[in-house]
Amino acid sequence: MLRSLLRLSGAAAFALLLAPAGAAPSPGLAYDELVQVVVGATPSPPGNFQADLVAAQSTPTPAPRRHGGLAGLAGVAGAVLGGGGAGAIGGAVASDAASSAMDDAIGAQFGGLAATMRGFLQPHLMHYAYLNGWERVDDVTAQTATIRKCDMGSVVTLDLAKQTYSVYTPATEPVASAPPAPRRSRAASAPSAPGTVVATLSEVTKPLGSMRIEHVPAAGYDATTSFVMSQATGSCRNGSAAIETVEYLPAITRPSVNSCPLRRPVIPQSAGDVAAAPSGGCTPTLAFKRSGPTPPANRLSLYTLVSFSAAGASPTPQPGASPPPAIGFLTERGNLRTLGPADAGLFEIPQGFTKAP
Fold first, then answer.
1. Beta-carbon neighbour count of residue 197 at 10 Å?
2. DSSP-derived pairing of the beta strands 303-310 and 282-291
């Protein structure tokens, strides 16, 4: 039940990234992005983008591991994740052993994420560029790029290694299929019987002060969202867990793209990216309360760490505290630069590229 409540939804993932058709063009902006899944380790701190970028560029992408026995988090770190791309996480599903280990690592509440978060145990480098409401996303690891000019009815995918391209409409742009869910027992896959539960979501936000990240002042916020399932009847189950989001927000508006369909983020960037209404035969009564300051909306975060923990655990490591979070989703951004008319060529098919067969 709790896993159902917290499964990856992605439906609201890019709501703030998208502008309606006819919206005013956003200022041109480009930046680099590092995304990483952190399992059983201390995440990189805010302000460490350049060092992490050097490490990512000097570390070869590990080859996918085949099925095999895993013992605890060390096994997960070596074999759960394999390869992926911008906005669409590809690759084969994790083995049953890896899924079980991931379940253990995060209190058996978020194991479904193990099947989708592939290719990000090592920092994964992306390039983003926005101009005139257009978007270009380069996946450096996969050597691919996608140019979205949805208001002009064009989505172009580039194979940078083969120097080929393909053209789609926004409605026909290929998207990766969701990986199959880990195999469950016959009893677990049976239709859920009716039941009820009280689901209480509590969010507490604390200000972290301001710090300079990539030479830009950014305000920090630490928001912990606690989930408590109680008074369960029928097929519903009691349980609890927490999601903590640490982010640093500069006075930079999140770039927008015109007329493109909703797309899920590469990895979760807020508690809202993983919360979804329960399904099946369990009917919840939802209650929500929050306290503390409200972070400014529609800002381009320079550092976001979304951490999961089981009941009673501290989602994000504190100085001198242990242990680190069971699993964290880290997004760092840097190398920001302004784009202008002279950069319009970034959003065109490069010379010398041929159409893919």
1. 25
2. unpaired
For residue 330, the cross-strand partners are 36, 305
Record the pTM.
0.72
Q: What is the 3-state secondary structure (H, E, C) of 163-232?
A: CEEEEECCCCCCCCCCCCCCCCCHHHHCCCCCEEEEEEEEEEEEEEEEEEECCEEEEEEEEEEEEEEECC
Q: How far is CA 278 from the centre of its chain?
A: 21
Which tokens sit at 30? 């480009």
pLDDT tens for each residue of 2-43: 444 444 333 332 232 333 333 444 569 999 999 998 887 889
Helix (H) or strand (E) run with residue 159 in it: strand 154-159
Specify whether the CB–CB gap between 124 and 53 falls below 8 A: no
Say what the pLDDT of residue 74 is: 27
Q: Which two tokens stand for residue 188?
A: 């677990």
Give the pairing of strands 164-168 and 354-355: parallel
Give the domain ranges of the chain: 2-179+193-349
Dihedral Cα 50, 273, 320, 104, nearest 10 deg: -120
